[in-house]
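Reopening this ticket.

The earlier resolution said the output was attached, but the attachment link was broken on my side. Pasting everything inline this time so it's all in one place.
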Amino acid sequence: MADLEAKLIERETSVRAKLTQPNSAERIQILSECTTHGSRFLVTGGYNLTSDDGLKAAEMANRKRKLAEAKSDRRKRKAFEKREKEAQEVLSQNKEIDKLNAVDLKKLLTWYKVPAKDIGPIQQGKTIWKKIMDEKEKEPSYEKWTDEDEAALVALTATDFDLKDTQLGRLEASRKREFEGAIKRMPKDEALEYVEGLFGMVNNAESTAEV
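Inline output:
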């Protein structure tokens, strides 16, 4: 049954793609959903994986994965922030351990990541909390979700991006920086000779292309 559903999804994806134009946002979106070489072939009629569409589709698929990870991370960190706030509110009341009720203990122990199954009856919870206080265990730490984190998450939702934003584009930019750094470190005569050689390569390539 699962195989049949997978084939139906693949067929639907392929049919949708045939109705789109190359280099269009819709084509790239559909390609990013393909999971097999067969589905990619049906989508494009056999395209080069290094084509603009292929590179952008790969980038989009990667962004979807990172977006899911970022949302999961945000959910966990926000949840911990809430637990910390609730626990600090209990602590601000300066209650003696014997005066803590079941709700108070749950907030405090959950903050310290004590499994719910270990908290048990209220007296057991008080015993665990007393041990934490007596041993002066450090308060749990975590990275708060910041505006910068949110901005990075929002950026992952963008579907309109250029080739420079793809893995190949980032690699090319990195290689260019490395090249520029190497040129700057060369003696002047050697650098000029190297650059002249590059110009010659470019001119030869252009001449070959024209033929």
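Reporter confirms the inline version is readable. Residues 1-47 form one domain. The mean pLDDT is 77.
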